[in-house]
Design goal:
By secondary structure, the protein is of the alpha+beta class. It contains six helices and six strands. The chain has a two-stranded antiparallel ribbon with strand order 1-2. Strands 3-4 form a two-stranded antiparallel ribbon. Helix 4 packs across helix 5.
């Protein structure tokens, strides 16, 4: 498996979210234009590296195809809202299709019990881990999986604030823009 060299820096405005949301955040807006990190295997290499997966999975065309399927599947359930709604069934099925390509194997080591992911085909590994991570977030706190509240932002985050009231992907970017817009509107009214 020929891996693409990781010679690009990560241009995304929000990184460090849990794996499934970080995968969604490979699409973002910049100056009103939608950007996409995963347009080629070089972008995949950047994403794999940013998540510590580059030593386990190669950045090749097949892996990219599988990661894009996982991103679209996760986006369809995250952006679809209510998981009980009739339209959610198709998104759930898409996530389950990704999850069919791996499983968790229980292990015991000198350090104690553990779990190891196993894949029928290693090119599904990164995609499967992202889908599995989404299940973990749903089991942990589904109400804390959020889209940014700024109307022009397409980023998602997992709200880890103490009181669970985070609204923005970044207070420095989207939160500041919203405050500036409100200030401008008030000044214009006065």
């Amino acid at each position: 498996m020929a891996a693409a060299p990781r010679d690009r820096t990560d241009p995304r405005p929000l990184v460090g979210e849990p794996l499934s949301l970080d995968l969604l955040n490979t699409r973002w807006m910049a100056d009103g234009v939608r950007q996409d990190l995963l347009t080629d295997v070089g972008g995949l290499a950047v994403w794999l590296g940013a998540n510590g997966l580059d030593d386990r999975f190669g950045a090749d065309a097949t892996t990219l195809e599988h990661v894009l399927r996982a991103r679209d599947a996760i986006a369809s359930v995250v952006d679809g809202g209510d998981m009980d709604a009739p339209h959610a069934a198709a998104g759930i099925a898409r996530v389950n299709k990704v999850l069919e390509h791996g499983r968790i194997r229980a292990t015991l080591s000198p350090q104690g019990p553990g779990e190891e992911p196993e894949f029928k085909d290693v090119t599904w590994g990164a995609a499967w881990l992202a889908a599995r991570d989404y299940l973990t977030l749903l089991a942990t706190a589904p109400d804390r999986i959020r889209p940014c509240a700024h109307e022009a932002c397409v980023l998602h985050f997992f709200d880890t604030s103490r009181n669970g009231t985070r609204r923005w992907c970044s207070m420095a970017a989207c939160g500041n823009r919203a405050k500036a817009s409100r200030h401008y509107a008030r000044a214009r009214e006065a």
